[in-house]
Amino acid sequence: MRTIQITIDEPMLVEVDRVTQQLGITRSAFIRHALQLALKQQKISLLERKHREGYAKKPVEAGEFDIWEAEQEWENL
């Protein structure tokens, strides 16, 4: 692991310290977790954008998935 230096505003630092104290973790652990979540969300956003672009380039055609209708099972809720 590497040590880095970051700058955040005072109100955010106060909130981070409050939450880390409640959770019983360090600032570093909290920030690492927040960065992991941000990176995961970024990856999801990229995949969703690619998915949208793919369907924009080649939209679903009418009847394209009709063959699978008999395979579906829907529970009565």
UniProtKB/TrEMBL annotation:
Chain coiled-coil ranges: none
SUPFAM superfamilies in alphabetical order: Ribbon-helix-helix
Superkingdom of source: Bacteria
Pfam families according to UniProt: RHH_1
Residues in Ribbon-helix-helix protein CopG domain copies: 3-42
Protein name: Ribbon-helix-helix protein CopG domain-containing protein
Example GO biological process: regulation of DNA-templated transcription
Gene3D superfamilies: Met repressor-like
Signal peptide: none
Originating organism: Moorella mulderi DSM 14980
